[in-house]
Design brief:
Layout: E1 6-11, H1 17-26, E2 31-34, H2 42-45, E3 71-74, E4 80-83, H3 118-122, H4 137-152, H5 179-190, E5 196-197, H6 236-242, E6 246-249, E7 253-259, E8 265-271, E9 277-287, H7 291-299, E10 325-332, E11 347-349, E12 365-367, H8 373-376, H9 388-398, E13 402-409, E14 418-426, E15 432-437, H10 443-461, E16 466-470, E17 510-512, H11 527-544
Parallel strand pairs: 1-2, 1-9, 2-6, 3-15, 9-17
Antiparallel strand pairs: 3-4, 5-11, 7-8, 8-9, 10-13, 10-16, 11-12, 12-13, 14-15
Helix pairs in contact: 1-6, 1-11, 4-11
């Protein structure tokens, strides 16, 4: 049976796509929302660390599976290797309804004003594509607010003196510190810094019909057992479906965006839950499959007018792949600082995000999420044994004495860090897979060294008997769960993929609505920014679509 034509297709039911689907559906547009995975719950996998998003030793609890999905990574020597979703170099995002918002740590950061104006602030950086966004913080501020209130954020809007201006407080109060967080708070204050409670996409009190978080240790990397973590799956997608205008199709792999002879999108080709090829037509197509898969889909969508992929006539699709170089320091105390109050991360300082002499950008430093035993077994000072009696004794005695301070450093985008469609390797359905190539800008290491030094100074002041730095920003390919930049927005079609509304240059009914749009990726986790972009792109479509074309 032929699928019924709809107003809009949204590819990807994650932080951006789920929100766009909801915005269009409640505005009265008919929507089909595609998701390559299914619904995920805590009961499916509980807190099995070996299949969590933090370790993936035995595969991904939230997908995709190792059998049907793969990618190619190009090595620095020109060779390539096939990687599976359970391998770190795959740069995996969860494949389920809600995507990473099911299993994320749920930090809810707004980017700072300077994060949108990096080139204006720091000037040209040799060997980079550092650029300003075509929008500024104040263009996105109303949509940050909307995300905070509709999805749900707990925090203290007065606590961070470096926060960009806002018009409305958070809808829920901030979480209190655990023992480690309180120690780092007091130490940071003593050093003249400005610590505060991390804003979180978790219920600190009962909200929106769901209970308050009871602060279990196994939060990041896992689904929430009481539904207190605020994600796309338990907020906006149910509203979209309830509107009667949105059909969610799970276990569907979208293969190609169809383009007509005029270069406009007419729908998608996809494989359904039975692996049968299907076609769904629509007036509008919105791609929100995360930076790697969004680029892959655009590149695999070729036509006479776009022989190198949809929106790629200027060779910018897939370029500028970014993630975050996580960096910081670790300390061992002479006494126990762990008190089993999850998720662990609760205290942050934002003093080093900008205005650091000789440093471009910066990042936040936070106490870390609780490391489960397997992950903890990899956290060792240089020279420590990872086997035998010494290893076992370390596991027993140091688990509750470890203190960590880490954060994401804002990477410098590079034209050669990219996603392409591999010419030879295909997935289960015969679709060319994503090929990741290039490397981080060498400056990232300099910035990470600076951040790690600051973190170690704080841990030493806190009384750590032994400290060591964990420095990020190595030469390898970036991406990971914070992947961004591969369909950057901009005013010039020659140096960007979409305009400032996420509308693909030259294809007025094709949009992008995820971290692919990010010109730069900020010094924070990008989840709330992606949500804000979802509301922003959806708002533009609703306001400017007249039923047949855009105004």
């Amino acid at each position: 049976m032929k699928n019924k034509h709809v107003n809009a297709i949204v590819v990807g039911a994650g932080a951006g796509g789920g929100i766009v689907a909801k915005e269009l559906a409640v505005a009265g547009l008919s929507v089909v929302l595609f998701e390559r995975g299914g619904w995920a719950t805590y009961d499916d996998h509980d807190d099995d660390e070996l299949i969590s998003q933090r370790t993936t030793v035995l595969g991904n609890a939230f997908g995709p599976d190792d059998i049907r999905h793969r990618r190619v990574v190009a090595n620095s020597d020109g060779s390539t290797r096939i990687v599976l979703p359970s391998e770190g170099s795959y740069s995996n995002n969860a494949a389920c309804v809600g995507s990473g918002t099911v299993s994320y740590g749920a930090m809810a950061w707004r980017f700072m004003e300077k994060d949108f104006k990096m080139k204006s602030t720091y000037g040209h950086v040799e060997g980079s594509t550092l650029e300003d966004w075509p929008i500024d913080y104040f263009d996105l501020e109303p949509f940050y607010e909307k995300a905070e209130w509709e999805i749900g954020v707990s925090g203290d809007h007065n606590a961070n003196p470096f926060m960009a201006p806002r018009k409305k407080p958070y809808p829920m109060p901030a979480f209190t510190y655990n023992r480690e967080g309180q120690l780092l708070h007091d130490t940071s204050k003593k050093l003249g810094l400005h610590p505060f409670s991390i804003p979180m996409l978790r219920n600190s009190v009962r909200n929106n019909g769901r209970p308050a978080c009871y602060r279990m240790r196994s939060c990041v990397g896992f689904a929430c057992p009481v539904n207190a973590k605020c994600g796309i799956h338990n907020t906006v997608i149910p509203i979209a479906i309830k509107s009667g205008n949105c059909e969610l199709r799970t276990h569907c792999q979208v293969a190609e965006i169809m383009l007509d002879e005029k270069g406009r999108a007419t729908g998608v080709k996809y494989f359904d839950e039975n692996n049968k090829g299907q076609i769904q037509t629509a007036d509008i197509v919105v791609v929100a499959a995360a930076a790697v898969e969004t680029a892959r889909l655009l590149l695999n969508s070729k036509s006479k007018l776009f022989p190198n992929g949809a929106g790629n006539n200027n060779d910018w699709v897939g370029r500028n792949l970014q993630g975050h170089a996580y960096t910081g320091a670790v300390g061992l105390m002479d006494y126990e600082v762990y008190d089993d109050v999850g998720p662990g991360a609760c205290m942050a300082i934002s003093d080093f995000n900008h205005d650091n002499e000789g440093i471009i950008g910066g990042g936040a430093l936070c106490n870390e999420f609780t490391a489960m035993p397997y992950l903890f077994s990899k956290m060792r000072p240089l020279g420590a044994k990872n086997w035998g009696l010494e290893h076992k004794e370390y596991q027993r005695t140091m688990f509750k004495r470890m203190i960590r301070l880490h954060g994401p450093f804002q990477e410098i985008p590079s034209f050669e860090a990219r996603v392409t469609a591999d010419p030879e390797v295909k997935d289960f359905w015969g679709i060319p897979v994503a090929r990741l190539s290039g490397k981080r800008h060498p400056y990232d290491r300099t910035g990470c060294e600076f951040m790690s030094q600051k973190a170690e100074e704080i841990l030493k002041e806190a009384g750590a008997a032994k400290t060591w730095q964990s420095i990020g920003g190595g030469p390898g390919i970036s991406g990971g769960q914070h992947q961004a930049g591969t369909a950057r927005m901009g005013n010039d079609p020659k140096t960007s993929v979409t305009n400032k509304f996420g509308q693909v240059h030259e294809i007025d009914n094709l949009f992008v609505a995820d971290g692919s749009l990010n010109v730069t990726n900020g010094g924070f986790n990008p989840a709330l920014t992606i949500m804000a972009l979802g509301f922003y792109v959806g708002d533009n479509i609703v306001k400017n679509w007249n039923g047949t074309k855009f105004k």
